[in-house]
């Protein structure tokens, strides 16, 4: 007990020792909100509340892991449920799958899977996309799910001009998902929210099962998440939420800041605790953050003070160009490590878009600085891993049509696109999964004998694999790799792909399977493995124990802290991002994003911009961010770099933005993968401009966790 309360401030103690009834912890960055959540869990357990009645919902898997480790420290061996909303829902759905027409081995479609399913639904619904795009339709459907609008509701809400295209596609898409025994990311929350709404018995059963619910980063919850925690806190309103409206940065994904602002209205009996002491940052950093955020009109001001040392002034640095910016920062880090004895892990370089990391990476490599980058070239998104995962998916769920289409001719086995199309049409006509159509290949019209034979051979191979479904994951995976001669296939295609790491990735995947078997000697199942793979979040590869400089987007940095922080590319059009700056709400969200970045810093902070920046290989003048003028410039240290000529000796050294430069900011939040995985709006189709007013109704469902991370070990 002493250990639990030791060193806490009075308001922190008040929050930690609060037991029953709703609790709102409203406080600025670095004030110990997350710390309070962990200590509160430990305290509740020490007061005799069974661990099994507690659920702590976090924004990322990483946050959940950290929380688990800390609770374990304070209250060893207690099985409290901790994880993200999506994982929470995925597990509940596993149990109640039949209530929504799924079976318990349902698959979670990742973003690119959903995209394929959507295309097929559009085809089946016979919608012409000449006046709209599949992306737009998908986005409308995703928004609808987020607002808990069912296909029937959307159809009945259609204007007299007839149902919209999205309204026509929506039921077809949902039906296809059901046929495939699959859900998309939006569905995880959507199904559970609706289940709770429509089944009072289940709702009250789960309400008493999870009597104590804690939500961190509540300012970034969306309507579906709100509905879920609300439904679970009626008979036992022991809901405690923690958040900072100034750090709400997922409006573009449907997060609704009103969820936190209205908490006191929703729960009139609420106890509200405000934490005002910041433990993280120097006064210099805090003043910069405070001055900036005061410019947001739609906010309630919060006082924040700290007893930390004054520290160094915040640096505002103007570089000639992106090369200099990257090199300058790498030099500084390198010097600090050598001279001041700091460690690489003490530094973070934050940016608005992943594209900005490229030049930094180059500079880090040249100085042999160890770094980890959290971005889109994700392990689970690599072609070879997706192929093997698709085999596992199909073994786990024979109705998984997206997996079927991916692997039926991978490695190539003479099953052409036409054959696949015939199988798909047959499946659509008979409302059966494609594997079923393949089993009936003799009944499928228009197939050459050779193709039919190839399909039969595939089905036979599949049946052999399916028998192995209950083997250990390692055995199963090795069997799949051998049976499909997958490595030989990779080696054959290596020349074209110029990618010799593919085979190594397969080995890495087998290692992951071995580890999974080891961690789950009793409860390991193919299903669980696939669920974990589907729900890995972008910040998961962030290992704060690893001694590397961290490169990440501002979005991904939420909740974290580093002794020294560099925020690069603080330029007009980048931060604020050109796609968000035209609306007040968009502009204010960009400001909050910079606020989040600034408040990650513990000791030192540098914000930088460049005079020119390369854009598609062309150097263009860059303008510093309008946010600069909102900072306490008088007390900051402004450094303008001298032009230097020793940079342009290296062709490979390029900070040009890739094509994704002109994609909307939505996809830049955490990543810009070629496969569209993650960071996107719950369905992978976010490449359209959309206005998302922060204070209006939630408009897009956040799928928080769609990404996987790569640690590029240099
Ligand atoms: P954010 O809004 O950025 O998520 P937060 O409010 O969740 O911030 P924490 O991450 O919980 O803040 O705490 C910030 C830092 O301050 C952490 O390093 C934490 O350990 C430390 N801290 C918080 N409270 C105390 C305390 N009472 N004594 C010592 N350190 C503290
Ligand atoms: Mg926190």
Automatic annotation (TrEMBL):
Residues covered by the UvrD-like helicase C-terminal domain: 283-559
Ranges annotated as biased composition (Acidic residues): 658-674
Entry similarity comment: Belongs to the helicase family. UvrD subfamily.
Domain UvrD-like helicase ATP-binding as annotated: residue spans: 6-282
Lineage of the species this protein comes from: Bacteria, Pseudomonadati, Planctomycetota, Planctomycetia, Pirellulales
Native source species: Novipirellula herctigrandis
The protein's enzyme class: isomerase
Residues noted as binding ATP in the record, renumbered to the chain: 27-34
Name of this protein: DNA 3'-5' helicase
Entry keyword Isomerase: yes
PROSITE patterns (UniProt xref): UVRD_HELICASE_ATP_BIND (PS51198), UVRD_HELICASE_CTER (PS51217)
One Gene Ontology term of the molecular function aspect: 3'-5' DNA helicase activity
Region (Disordered): 658-687
Keyword field: ATP-binding, DNA-binding, Helicase, Hydrolase, Isomerase, Nucleotide-binding
Catalytic activity as recorded in UniProt: Couples ATP hydrolysis with the unwinding of duplex DNA by translocating in the 3'-5' direction; ATP + H2O = ADP + phosphate + H(+)
One GO-annotated biological process of the protein: recombinational repair
Gene3D superfamilies linked: 1.10.10.160, P-loop containing nucleotide triphosphate hydrolases (3.40.50.300), PCRA, domain 4 (1.10.486.10)
E.C. designation(s): 5.6.2.4
Classification via PANTHER family: ATP-DEPENDENT DNA HELICASE SRS2, UVRD / RECB / PCRA DNA HELICASE FAMILY MEMBER
InterPro entries the UniProt entry points to: DExx_box_DNA_helicase_dom_sf, DNA_helicase_UvrD-like_C, DNA_helicase_UvrD/REP, P-loop_NTPase, UvrD-like_ATP-bd
Any one cellular-component term (Gene Ontology): cytosol
Membrane-traversing stretches: none
């Amino acid at each position: 007990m002493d250990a639990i309360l030791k060193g806490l401030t009075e308001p922190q103690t008040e929050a930690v020792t609060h037991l029953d009834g709703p609790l709102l912890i409203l406080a600025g960055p670095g004030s110990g909100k997350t710390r309070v959540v962990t200590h509160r869990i430990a305290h509740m357990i020490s007061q005799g509340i069974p661990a099994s009645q507690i659920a702590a919902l976090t924004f990322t898997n990483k946050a959940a892991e950290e929380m688990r480790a800390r609770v374990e420290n304070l209250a060893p061996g207690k099985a409290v449920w901790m994880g993200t909303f999506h994982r929470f829902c995925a597990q509940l759905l596993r149990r109640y799958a039949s209530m929504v027409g799924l079976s318990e081995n349902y698959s979670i479609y990742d973003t690119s899977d959903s995209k394929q399913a959507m295309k097929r639904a559009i085809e089946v619904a016979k919608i012409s996309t000449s006046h709209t795009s599949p992306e737009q339709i998908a986005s409308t459907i995703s928004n609808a799910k987020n607002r808990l609008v069912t296909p029937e509701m959307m159809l009945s809400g259609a204007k007299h001009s007839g149902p919209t295209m999205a309204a026509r596609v929506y039921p077809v898409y949902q039906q296809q998902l059901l046929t495939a025994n699959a859900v998309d990311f939006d569905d995880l929350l959507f199904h559970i929210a609706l289940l709770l709404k429509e089944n009072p018995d289940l709702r009250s059963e789960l309400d008493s099962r999870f009597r104590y619910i804690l939500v961190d980063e509540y300012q970034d919850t969306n309507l579906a998440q709100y509905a879920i925690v609300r439904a679970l806190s009626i008979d036992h309103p022991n809901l405690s939420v923690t958040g900072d409206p100034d750090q709400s940065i997922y409006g573009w994904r449907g997060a609704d800041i009103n969820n936190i602002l209205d908490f006191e209205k929703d729960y009139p009996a609420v106890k509200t605790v405000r934490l005002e002491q910041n433990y993280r940052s120097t006064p210099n950093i805090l003043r910069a953050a405070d001055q900036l955020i005061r410019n947001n009109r739609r906010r309630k001001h919060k006082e924040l003070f700290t007893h930390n040392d004054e520290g160094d002034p915040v640096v505002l640095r103007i570089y000639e160009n992106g090369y200099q910016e990257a090199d300058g920062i790498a030099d500084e880090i390198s010097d600090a490590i050598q001279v001041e004895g700091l460690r690489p892990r003490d530094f973070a370089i934050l940016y608005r878009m992943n594209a900005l990391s490229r030049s930094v990476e180059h500079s880090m490599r040249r100085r042999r600085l160890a770094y980890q980058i959290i971005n889109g070239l994700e392990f689970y998104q690599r072609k070879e891993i997706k192929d093997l995962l698709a085999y596992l998916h199909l073994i786990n769920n024979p109705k998984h049509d997206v997996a079927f289409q991916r692997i039926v001719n991978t490695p190539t086995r003479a099953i052409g696109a036409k054959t696949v199309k015939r199988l798909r049409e047959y499946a659509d006509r008979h409302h059966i999964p494609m594997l079923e159509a393949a089993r009936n290949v003799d009944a499928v019209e228009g197939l050459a004998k050779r193709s039919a034979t190839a399909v039969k051979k595939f089905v036979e191979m599949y049946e052999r694999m399916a028998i192995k479904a209950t083997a250990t994951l390692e055995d199963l995976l090795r069997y799949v790799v051998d049976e499909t001669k997958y490595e030989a296939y990779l080696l054959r295609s290596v020349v074209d792909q110029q990618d010799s790491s593919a085979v190594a990735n397969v080995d890495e995947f087998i290692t992951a399977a071995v580890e999974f078997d080891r961690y789950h000697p009793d409860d390991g199942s193919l299903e669980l493995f696939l669920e974990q793979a589907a729900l890995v979040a972008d910040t998961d590869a962030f290992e704060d124990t690893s001694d590397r400089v961290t490169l990440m987007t501002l979005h991904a940095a939420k909740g974290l802290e580093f002794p020294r922080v560099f925020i690069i590319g603080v330029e007009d059009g980048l931060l604020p991002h050109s796609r968000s700056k035209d609306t007040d709400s968009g502009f204010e969200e960009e400001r909050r994003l910079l606020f989040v970045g600034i408040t990650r810093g513990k000791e030192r902070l540098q914000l930088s911009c460049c005079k020119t920046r390369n854009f598609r290989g062309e150097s263009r003048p860059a303008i510093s961010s309008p946010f600069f003028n909102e900072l306490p410039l008088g007390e900051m240290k402004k450094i303008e770099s001298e032009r230097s000529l020793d940079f342009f000796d290296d062709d490979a050294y390029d900070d040009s933005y890739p094509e994704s430069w002109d994609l909307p900011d939505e996809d830049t939040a955490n990543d810009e993968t070629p496969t569209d995985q993650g960071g996107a709006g719950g369905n992978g189709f976010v490449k359209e401009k959309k206005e998302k007013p922060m204070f209006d109704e939630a408009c897009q469902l956040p799928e928080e966790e769609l990404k996987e991370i790569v640690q590029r070990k240099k």
